[in-house]
Amino acid sequence: MAISAKGAARRKARVRKALKARAYGRPRLSVHRSDKNIYAQIIDDASGRTLAAASTLDKDVKAQVKNGSTAEAAITIGKLIAERGTKAGVSEVVFDRGAYIYHGRVKALADAAREGGLQF
C-alpha cells in the first residue's frame, strides 16, 4: 500500500509535535532514509543549528559500506553520529523518526546510537 505524501507529512508533524512537548531542551536526533542512503543529524531546535551530522554519503563511510540502504549501513551511521555527538558535547537527545516506523534501518540506527553512548 503506497503512502501519500500528505499522510506522511501529517504523521511527521504529529511525531515532531510530540517530541517538542517532551524534549525539555534536549537536542533532536533526526533520521532521514531514502531508497539508497540514510542520514542522521543532531539538531538544537532552540538555536536552529545542526550540532553533528552523518550519512552514508560521507567519504570515509562510503569506503566502509558497500550499499547505503542496508541495516549494516544504518548501524555504521548510528555509531558515527553517536561519536560525533559526544565530540560536540551532546549526551542526551530525543529521537525523531520522522514519518518512518520504528523498524528496520531506523531501529538499527537508533540501537547503534544508544550503544555508541547517546541516551534517549
UniProtKB/TrEMBL annotation:
<comment type="subunit">
    <text>Part of the 50S ribosomal subunit; part of the 5S rRNA/L5/L18/L25 subcomplex. Contacts the 5S and 23S rRNAs.</text>
</comment>
<keyword id="KW-0687">Ribonucleoprotein</keyword>
<protein>
    <recommendedName>
        <fullName>Large ribosomal subunit protein uL18</fullName>
    </recommendedName>
</protein>
<dbReference type="Pfam" id="PF00861">
    <property type="entry name" value="Ribosomal_L18p"/>
</dbReference>
<comment type="function">
    <text>This is one of the proteins that bind and probably mediate the attachment of the 5S RNA into the large ribosomal subunit, where it forms part of the central protuberance.</text>
</comment>
<dbReference type="GO" id="GO:0005840">
    <property type="term" value="C:ribosome"/>
</dbReference>
<keyword id="KW-0689">Ribosomal protein</keyword>
<dbReference type="InterPro" id="IPR005484">
    <property type="entry name" value="Ribosomal_uL18_bac/plant/anim"/>
</dbReference>
<dbReference type="InterPro" id="IPR057268">
    <property type="entry name" value="Ribosomal_L18"/>
</dbReference>
<keyword id="KW-0699">rRNA-binding</keyword>
<comment type="similarity">
    <text>Belongs to the universal ribosomal protein uL18 family.</text>
</comment>
<dbReference type="InterPro" id="IPR004389">
    <property type="entry name" value="Ribosomal_uL18_bac-type"/>
</dbReference>
<keyword id="KW-0694">RNA-binding</keyword>
